[in-house]
Amino acid sequence: MIHPHAYIQPLTFVLVHGAWADASFWDGIAAQLRHMGHNVHAPEYPGHGSDLNKNVTHAMQSQAVADYIIQHQLQDIVLVGHSFGGTVVQKTAELVPERIKRLVFWNAFVLNNGESANDELPPAAQQAFDQVRKASGNNTIMLPFPLFRENFVNLATLEQAKYLYARISPEPAGPLYEKLDLTTFYKLTIPRSYVDLTEDAVMPQLGAAYSWHPKMSSRLGLFRLIKGHGDHMTTAKTEPHHVAKLLYMAGRD
């Protein structure tokens, strides 16, 4: 018989945010995980948060996360990537594989070797982002509010959507367009999980064509699938306890 009050395994989480976000994206979720007894870190990476320099590379971003892990002497970590953060997790895993207990991708990109995140976007999104990038004058992409409202925060009220939109900033475009050498990643044997929030509308719900799951998740080989309700960015703020529970189920032994 399975005991109804199962033991909570203390874990060390390192949480990596996605595009148009910073480390504060994790505040509510991190608080919930700590309340559950876990050790939680949410490092910032270049081009985000207080870093005003948008002329950054993907290598700078993944190296920053790896350096944080090393500097804080973290071991046996559950490395979580959300959205674009999945690509950062892929490269970070190459840099510090011996420190990672499990990789968790939450509605995140899992790129094939030699791909960029932009390669995985539907053609309409590629065209829209390319236009915004060229018009920016500083090689950044700012999400138009209609796209943010309908695809990123589709479960939000209009008031919530406006509140969240006021807190995003232009994303450095360079790393989104970099084609990544993931030869080493695909040789790693670190256990991995995929968390799929089923109302997430950032990638079209078209099965294998562009979807988070099963298209991205299937690239992980053997993996644990955890599903729950939620959209791309609202649920992290309105139901952090729900997301924390899903991440724990993804990360535990």
UniProtKB/TrEMBL annotation:
<dbReference type="GO" id="GO:0016787">
    <property type="term" value="F:hydrolase activity"/>
</dbReference>
<dbReference type="InterPro" id="IPR000073">
    <property type="entry name" value="AB_hydrolase_1"/>
</dbReference>
<dbReference type="Pfam" id="PF12697">
    <property type="entry name" value="Abhydrolase_6"/>
</dbReference>
<dbReference type="InterPro" id="IPR052897">
    <property type="entry name" value="Sec-Metab_Biosynth_Hydrolase"/>
</dbReference>
<dbReference type="InterPro" id="IPR029058">
    <property type="entry name" value="AB_hydrolase_fold"/>
</dbReference>
<keyword id="KW-0378">Hydrolase</keyword>
<feature type="domain" description="AB hydrolase-1">
    <location>
        <begin position="13"/>
        <end position="206"/>
    </location>
</feature>
<protein>
    <submittedName>
        <fullName>Alpha/beta hydrolase fold protein</fullName>
    </submittedName>
</protein>
